[in-house]
Amino acid sequence: MISFLTIFILGIGLIGLQISISTTDYLTTQQRHDMLRQARNINSSIIENSEVTSELLQTIEKLGSFSSYNIWLIDTGGRIVAASTMQDEFVGEIMSDSLMEDLLNGRNSIQIMEIDEEERPMLSVAVPWTSEGIIHGGIILHSPIAGIKSTVRNIREIVLWSILGGLLIVSILVSYLSWTISKPLRKVEEAANEIALGNYSKRVNHHLPDEVGALVQSFNRMAAKLNEIEKQRDSTEQRRKDFIANISHELRTPLTAMKGFLEVLQEGFVKDPKLQQKYYNIMFRETEYLNQLVDDLMDLIKLEQKEISMHLKKVDIAEIIKVVSLQLNPTFIKRNNKLQSFTLEPLPYIIGDSLRIEQILTNIIHNANKFTSNGTITVKTKVQNDCLCVIVTDTGIGIPSHDLDRIWDRFFKVDRDRTKNGRGTGLGLAIVKELVKLHKGNIHVESKLGQGSTFTISFPIYNYDTLYNS
């Protein structure tokens, strides 16, 4: 505001000063020209008079009554011999030598005179008094310059009042402009301080379509992005903590069991060879579990970091289902389950890594068998929307609805008590989901608690030549 007002005052002040100077020069020049013209006219009126007579004095007095200037008539000696006012006390006074020198040489003279009896300076114009080419003296017209100064003073007063009125208007406008800018900026500052303290939900309300509005919108977008990043960071941090807790638990359980059995065997408390062999078998199974846990972890990390190399080729899903069924058949017999397979013939080929697809189907079918007892696991295939779908349905214990979205998380187990039905690392479904994504496919689950689950895996059907030529 101070900057605007300073610029306004300086600008208007300079304009007013320039106007007053220009006006003074203009009025002075115009008055000089007018006085010179009237002086020449007076000379023309008395051109027939070469001496001061009563008739000449009356003529000068009469001319003075029609003029707005005082008229003096001087002789060649520089003495004032006549005046437009008979009572003029200057009659008989001697003019300066420099003035007389100009007049006697036929030159006009214009100057500012300081007359002792006058309290104000006078603008004087002198022209030679001539007749028939002979100079008889001079004619002087003079007028106070106070009139010019009064006019200029009036102009300055007008400029001053204009400045004061302009200051009032500019102050109101600048105050409003400053308020409209500073208020939302203060809000932005307050919001920035809130965000600095961790309140990423803070926003600024300002909807005017101006530069400040654009700034506020950018600020709100930044705050929303920070809020999203903070939520992702919190989620990542929570997943990291859960991962550490889960992996610690999964490692501690087998290691504790192995340590206990080793201590018993080392101290020689078990003498029976059959019991010793039983303990060795248990430790071997725990070792296999740890090895499987490490392998699954490494696979999952590689999948999430896109470090898994894929060996793409034509894959026959029907053949892989047969191989997986044959491999898992002993586990089905152990849990008294029945595996039914209904595959279309012939099935279209898909493009993928046969070993990874076998890993997907093995995990899903093995999972269905693990949580089903004295039931049936059904594997079906169908073609739908340019995708080859593999549907695995079991009649097992099912999954609670509130846990359906969490079964894909690392180490998540719907019910810890379910581990009695078969031990697992809790990474199988997380690996399956990443492998399916790697094949540009999709996996979906439907389940009802106590009635079983259905997993549907969809693989896109590609043209083999098109895929490898692209």
Can you tell me about this structure?
The structure is a single chain. The longest helix is centred in the middle third of the chain and has 57 residues, at 211-267. Helix 5 (211-267) packs antiparallel against helix 6, helix 6 (273-304) packs parallel to helix 9 (428-438) and helix 7 packs parallel to helix 8. Strand 4 (122-131) and strand 5 form a beta hairpin. The model is unreliable at 416-422 and 466-470 (pLDDT under 50). The protein is built from ten helices and twelve strands. 55% of the residues lie in helices and 17% in strands. It has three domains: 2-150, PAS domain (Beta-Lactamase, 2-Layer Sandwich), CATH 3.30.450.20; 211-303, Orthogonal Bundle (Helix Hairpins), CATH 1.10.287; 308-469, Heat Shock Protein 90.
Compact overview of the structure:
It is found in: Cell membrane. The protein has 470 residues and is of the alpha+beta class. 55% of the residues lie in helices and 17% in strands.
